[in-house]
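Handout, section B. The chain below has 468 residues.
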Amino acid sequence: MSRGHDALHRPRLTGAARAIERAFLVGIDYRVRLRNPATAGSKGSLTATSQAARESAALGSVVSRAPSILQFSAEESLEELRDLATSAGAQVAGEFLQHRDKPDPATLIGKGKLQEIAGAAASVSADLLVFDHDLTASQQRNIENVVNTRVIDRTQLILDIFARHARTREGQLQVELAQLEYLLPRLGGRGIEMSQLAGGIGTRGPGETQLETDRRKIYRRIRHVKEQIENVRRIRAQQRQRRESVPVATVALVGYTNVGKSTLFNALTQAAVLESPKMFATLDPTIRAVTLPSRRKALLSDTVGFIRNLPHTLVSAFRATLEEVQRAALILHISDASNPLSAEQDAQVERVLQELEAEKKPRLHVMNKIDLLPAKQRESLRDDAKTIHVSAAKGIGMSTLLERIDGTLSEDAVSRIRLRVPQNEGKTLAMLEARARIYSRAYKDGLVELEAEAPESVVRRVREFVVG
C-alpha cells in the first residue's frame, strides 16, 4: 500500500537556508519472522562475531531469541521511521509498505514492487527513498538504478540525525567514528567520493587503485578519531574519579528516545538542556547537581535516548556516554505514559540495561507525560514502590519524585543530631541552614541549640558541636 501526504516542517539550516528534502518512506513486513530483523537480507551481518552481536544488542537491537521482548509491528515501525525522517529535517511526501515472505537478495523487495515504488515516488516529486531496513551496498546501488533517485537506509538516516544534533567536540567525534565505520565496508560497492571526509582524497600512491586509497584514508582517519575519543574517555574517567571521591551519588536518566528525559532533567535541576520533540535531540551527556529534600546533593546525568535496531556502529562510539549509566547509583527509567507503544519501548530499554550489566542497579520507573492522558485515566493512576507518575512539562509529581530519589540513595546517609553552636559561628549556622533540615531551634547563653537531620558529609564538619 502506498499513500502520499504533505506536511510543513521547518527547513534544515546549515549556515545558509537549504531546501527541504522530500522523502518517500518504504517499510517492509516479512510474514516469516526473521531471526534478526536488523541484519536480514544483508550479507554484512551485524552478528558476524559474538562481540558484534553483544554490541548491537547493547543499544537496543531487536533479536527475537528473547520471546519476552515485545515486537513492533511493521506499521508501527514505519510510523517511527516517519518521526526519524522528520527529525532529520525531511518532509515526508509518501509511504509504501511491502509485505513479503522473505527479502529479495538483489533489491530487498523485488523488482516488480520496486517499479511500483519508483512510480509512486516520482508522482510526489520525492528527492530520496528511505528504507526501514539495512541495505547492502549492492542492494542500494540496484535500487537506485531502478528508481533514479537517492536511496538511504534506516542506519544512514539515524547517523544523519546524530550528525545534526552533536554539539560538543566529543559528540562530533563519536558520530564521525560511527559514520566512518558504516562507510568502510561499503566502499567497494558504492564508489563513494571522499571529498567530504577530511578534506578530500589527495594524491594516490604508486600502483594503488582509487578504492585502496579511499580505504587506507578511512582507516587512518578512524585510528585518529579513536585516539581522540580515548583521550575524552580518559578525561571523563578523571572527572568521575574526582566526583566519586566526594560522597555525592549519580542518578542516570535512561529511556527510549523522545520520552521527555531532557524536559524532566530541566524540571529537576533548573538546567537549560535542549528540549525538543525531535528524536535524538540529546546526544551529549549533561551532568547537573540537584538538591534533595534531605538537603543532600545528587548529580543527575541526562543520556542519549535508545531506539530499536540502533546502528551497531554507534555502540562503540558512544561507549563513553554509556559509562555514566554503568557507574550510576540509581537509574531513572523514563517512559512516555501517553504512548501506546510504551510497553514495547520499555522492553528495548530493559534489553539495553541487561547488556550494560546495569539491570540489577536500584531503579525507579518514571511514567512521564501524564498530562496528555484523558482525565479519568489520569485520576486512576497510583504510584507504588517502584513507579512514579509525573508530567515534567507541567511540573506534576516533581516533589514526590525527589522524595523517592532521596529515600532510595544510600550515599551520604542522613542522621538525626542535636547540636549546640556558638552564635558567633555564623558560617557553621549558615551551612546548617542550607544543608540540613532544622526541626527545632533555641537560644541560650550565647549558644544556638538545634535538632536537625543532616547528611554524613555535614555531620563530619560540625562534629565538635554535636551533643548527646
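Note. The CA atoms of residues 232 and 328 lie 19 Å apart. Compare this with the example in section A.
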